[in-house]
Amino acid sequence: METKAKNVVTIDPKRCILCANCYNFCNNDGGGAIRLHSGDDIGLHAYVVYDLCGGCQKCIDICPQNAIQKAIYENGIVKKL
Ligand code: SF4
Ligand code: SF4
């Protein structure tokens, strides 16, 4: 099924220090789209559930690591801007 392109954000797992700023912000003011994750070989980092992201992109400014970047999500594929 084709989906319309929408604004999202993506998180660079190498930069993320798992401070949870974005997680807390999105739970309060966004769509609850950020998860704190430990299940892969990159180690601990936050990641975005793109289907839940409302695209406000406000979490970008509260990341102390500049780990969050603007992106577009379409048909299951995310592209950094
Ligand atoms: S862009 Fe908005 S909705 Fe999406 S993850 Fe960031 S705070 Fe949540
Ligand atoms: S705000 Fe940045 S460093 Fe903190 S958990 Fe989110 S992505 Fe990681």
Can you identify the CATH class?
Alpha Beta
CATH topology: Alpha-Beta Plaits
Secondary structure tally, helices: 1
Biggest sheet strand order reads: 1-4-5
Q: Structural class of the secondary elements?
A: mainly beta
What is the makeup of the main sheet? 3 strands, antiparallel
Bound molecules: iron/sulfur cluster
User: From N to C, what is the helix and strand string?
Assistant: EHEEEE
Tell me the helix content: 10-25%
Explain how this protein is built.
With 81 residues, this protein is mainly beta. It is built from one helix and five strands. It has one helix at 21-29; strands at residues 6-11, 34-37, 45-48, 68-74, 77-80. Strands 1-4-5 form a three-stranded antiparallel β-sheet, with no helix packed on it. It has a two-stranded antiparallel ribbon with strand order 2-3. The protein is globular and about 35 Å long. It starts with 5 loop residues before the first strand and ends with a strand. It binds iron/sulfur cluster (2 copies). The site of one iron/sulfur cluster has 14 residues, from helix 1. One iron/sulfur cluster binds at residues 9, 25-26, 30-31, 33-34, 48, 53-59.
Task: Summarize the SSE layout with pairings.
Layout: E1 6-11, H1 21-29, E2 34-37, E3 45-48, E4 68-74, E5 77-80
Antiparallel strand pairs: 1-4, 2-3, 4-5
The structure holds iron/sulfur cluster (SF4) (2 copies).
The site of one iron/sulfur cluster has 14 residues, from helix 1.
